[in-house]
TrEMBL record:
Residues 54-150 are annotated as: Disordered. Its main location: secreted. It is found in: Secreted, Extracellular space, Extracellular matrix. Residues 74-87 have a biased composition (Basic and acidic residues). Keywords: Collagen, Extracellular matrix, Secreted, Signal. InterPro entries: C1q_dom, Collagen, Collagen/C1q_domain, Tumour_necrosis_fac-like_dom. It comes from Cottoperca gobio. GO terms for cellular component: collagen trimer. Residues 154-290 form the C1q domain. Residues 100-109, 115-124 have a biased composition (Gly residues). This is Complement C1q tumor necrosis factor-related protein 7 isoform X1. PROSITE patterns: C1Q. It holds the Pfam family Collagen. Residues 62-72 have a biased composition (Low complexity).
Length: 299
């Protein structure tokens, strides 16, 4: 509304000044033309007075037609970054959104701390027996014990055996198993293996009396894999008897047995009805140092 009034005032002023210009031009031009006709050289023209006060604005005219849309102006420059505002009040907790899809497997994280030790599990089954270890060195002698009751009779080592066989013609190069035990003081003869195992060190006497039939007999007394004696008996008839004996020193765990030492010379014969083949042995006397050690242990 103010814009329309301003346009009206400017338009009125222009019309007034145009009218004054026309009047001035008419006056001057008329007097010049008149002076030429009369021969007078005077020029009289009135000077317009000062403009009067603006009149009251006229009534608003009808709105003009809308003008054409102008060209869009360029974006203005970004303003300066404002100062950081104060932290707002924490808003209310929103609703839990819907569960998202399972994502891909991420990279393995670092190892966590070791957890508490678990309880003891059940005892497992017994494993197989391991190999026998090497024999250790003899330990130092322990402190002397208190004196005990004298048992001198029990200090005398006893070891003796005699065994027969119930089969004929045994295998060669292997211990002959005299499986019929007649006597075994101390339990040092094993009929399952045919071996005598020494328990007390000392001097031992061994002998054998073998019935042979149909074949010759090549038999030997073996100590720890080495032949102590060998005997060979030729069978001159249907039956014959071979015998042998020896005295030897044995250490604890030494082994003694009989075996056939020549191929196809195994005429050993046995008949439970009327003949036996025997293997015997016994301790003559134990090692004196060993007996002294036993006596000290019993004191």
């Amino acid at each position: 509304m103010q814009l329309v009034s301003l346009k009206h005032v400017i338009s009125s002023d222009l019309r007034m000044w145009a009218l004054m210009g026309v009047c001035l031009f008419h006056c001057v031009f008329g007097q010049l033309f008149d002076s030429k006709l009369k021969g007078a050289s005077r020029l009289i023209c009135s000077v317009p007075g000062s403009p009067g006060l603006p009149g009251k604005p006229g009534p608003s005219g009808a709105p003009g037609a809308d003008g054409n849309v102008g060209i869009l102006g360029r974006d203005g420059r970004d303003g300066r970054k404002g100062e950081k505002g104060e932290k707002g009040v924490t808003g209310l907790k929103g609703r839990v959104g819907p569960t998202g899809k399972i994502g891909g497997r991420g990279q393995r994280g670092p190892a966590g701390k070791r957890g508490p030790a678990g309880g003891s599990g059940e005892v497992g089954s017994l494993g197989p027996s391991g190999r026998d270890g090497e024999k250790g060195q003899q330990g130092q002698r322990g402190p002397r014990g208190t004196a005990g009751t004298c048992r001198c009779g029990s200090l005398l080592p006893k070891s003796a055996f005699s065994a027969g066989i119930t089969s004929s013609y045994p295998a060669e190069k292997t211990p002959i198993k005299f499986n019929k035990v007649l006597f075994d003081e101390g339990g040092h003869y094993n009929p399952l293996t045919g071996k005598f195992i020494c328990a007390y060190p000392g001097i031992y006497y061994f002998s054998y009396d073998i019935t042979l039939a149909n074949k010759h007999l090549a038999i030997g007394l073996v100590q720890n894999g080495q032949y102590r004696i060998k005997t060979f008996d030729a069978n001159t008839g249907n039956h014959d008897v071979a015998s042998g004996s020896t005295v030897t020193y044995l250490n604890p765990e030494d082994e003694v047995w009989l075996e056939i030492f020549f191929h196809d010379q195994n005429g050993l014969f046995s008949d439970p009805g009327w003949t036996d083949s025997l293997f015997s042995g016994f301790l003559l006397y134990a090692d004196t140092d060993y007996l002294d050690t036993l006596a000290e242990d019993y004191e």
